[in-house]
Amino acid sequence: MPDTAPFTETTHFLPLRRRTLAQHLGRGTPPATPLEQAGLLAAQLCRLHAHPGAQLERLLHDACALFAADDGSAVAAQLSGKGGEGQPALDAWLAELAMHGVLLAPDEAVERFVAASPDAYPGADFQAACQVTLAEHTIRYPATAAPDDEGEAVDPESDPEEEAPRASGAIERNGLFTSEQARVLRAIAANPDELIDLDAYAGTGKSHLVLALMDARPGRYTYIAPSRGQVEAFRPRLPADSGTRLLTQIELANLMVQQAARSGRGNGFVPTYRLSTIPAWEITRRIGLQGIGQRVPEQVLMTALEGINRWCASASPTLQAAHFDRSLPWAMLDAVPYVAAAEHVWRCMFDAGVQKGGCLSLNTGHLGKWLELQGVAPPVGLGMLLVDEAHELSPAWKQVLARHAPGVVSLGDPHQRLVGRASRWSSSKVLEMSQSVRQGSQVDGLVNQSLALDDIGASSERFMGASDRATGVRRYATWSQVPLSGARLYGSLWRLLQEAHQLLAQGAHVHVHPASLRLLQKEAQAPIDAWRSVRRGESSRRWEAFVEACEQRGQGDIPALFSGGFDSTALEQLLAALVPVQEAGITLCLAQHAKNLQFDRVAMSACCFITGYETRQAHSPVRAAYLALTRGSQQLWLPGDAMEQLQLSAQRHAESLETRRMEKRRAAGHVKR
């Protein structure tokens, strides 16, 4: 039966040492003191199902009093064991307890309370003594040259080279932090003008650090996030009157290009973020782009834009032939015409006449490259920048931020960058955080195994779950054992679609993560159209390729969904039946889209670990699995052979990348066929 017991709000600790439980399992003897006897009785009950915290507290109190007054008969009746059980049984007990939010207390805590009062359960004092991950720390924020309480917004008319405001006095703040968080906070506060790379594993509390910094000195820092959604999710956690500055990366880029334009850069044109709705043929006509060889102007435009995007994501100061090796591998020996076309398109992207009416799109990658080439720096008045998800920043943006005099804290996790490698400053202070405050130590082995498979290598620090948080790990034999609640993560879009279809048919309230939903809407029409062609007696080549790909991935049942009647109308009905996340009992999401999410219960489908077949697969299957493994705070469900399959997927992905590299080299004439 699926474990659908309600979650406890916090981890509960039993007054029972690990070695005492091991002795009971091995010898069948009960603990020596009423306090640990009560802990063992509670462990026996908590293995079976979860108990509310107040109920568990009463049980421990009453059992301890009962055993203290007993002549030994109650202890013998309740706690005598059969014995003969070893480490596997102990591991099973601990895993079952963790699934219900219960842990054995640290040995030192039990020993201290047993010595002080072996016949009485100490209640709240005992539970508080077991909470060891977070502790009270005093953080001293030295005097700085930034405003303290003014909380003024940055004036878009101000000179970006102006001096920072007057100094503010040193202050102290107390708060609950891990020892790592306290160390990082002190380093940031004491180095206000530094470039700091903070590498922090998932769930280690980067947002908690940002809140602490901004609460201490609201005008000293500006928080930068990639998207509006992240900024708005962060805003309610700050005091309404703090005057704290929160910007998206688009807003930062627009602010910088506006100031650059006022200082004479850009020939009077303000190249702010914009999306073009003009069709490709009209764009080519307006900018005078010609065809190349057999390629019509619209195809040349698409090729030029792809090359520009790859150039903007690189450290190269100029467009190179290598930026076209994905779209034109066969043209590597003569890419000069395409480089010239891309250079022309780039000039038009920043031409006031061409861009009147929004001819060409400009995204943050384009703006970052333009700002780098123009030598622009962020406004000094922003204070120290706290840049979230900085592992996604391009080398150009890193270079732009490096010019910021008040300093920058780059908050990121290189293992969460699904494609490519995180850009680094050539010289910066590097700080690390590996202590999770989201998950318990029960997931350590799984997470560190996934990190070890990443081709960038693991950090110098291993991921560490919190010793005082219970995250139960359950290995399922069949997917039907997984609870019908919480989040379900997938490595296959088709498996997600299939299960959404089945769950909705069962009457479940289903939500699909927006990024996964957009991909589903984009990709689902292809197999629908392929099967429609087969039914009409037309070419079956596309359908056969789809069936072959599904069989290769062990998903031979997926084509039956489409051949069984799932068509465009059924897709529309499915999309209409989905509910907002607030109303959902189950949330479905692809593993690669799980960034910034957290759930009490997470179940990972087998397809999260069986992937890496595609030679064109964009993301690393290992990093996607790492993202998924670090989302669940209280329960994590995964198949029994998960890590073995992930290792095979990593090998397949590496082989696919090598195949792709060899194809490029052959196309460029460097390798004989």
UniProtKB/TrEMBL annotation:
Residues 147-162 have a biased composition (Acidic residues). InterPro entries: P-loop_NTPase. Residues 662-673 have a biased composition (Basic residues). It comes from the Bacteria. Residues 143-173, 654-673 are annotated as: Disordered. This is Uncharacterized protein.
